Amino acid sequence: MSRLLVLGAGGHGKVLAEAAEASGRWDAIAMLDDRHSLLNGSLRWPVIGSIDDCSVFSSEWSDAIVAVGHSVTRLRWLEMVESLGFAIPVVVHPSAWVSPSAKIAGGTVIMANATVQADARLGRGCIVNTGASVDHDCRLGAGVHICPGVHLGGEVVIGDGSWLGIGCSVIHCRTIGCEVMVAAGATVIDDIEDGMTVAGVPAREIISRRNKS
Question: So where's the catalytic machinery, residue-wise (predicted)?
Answer without folding.
Answer: 136
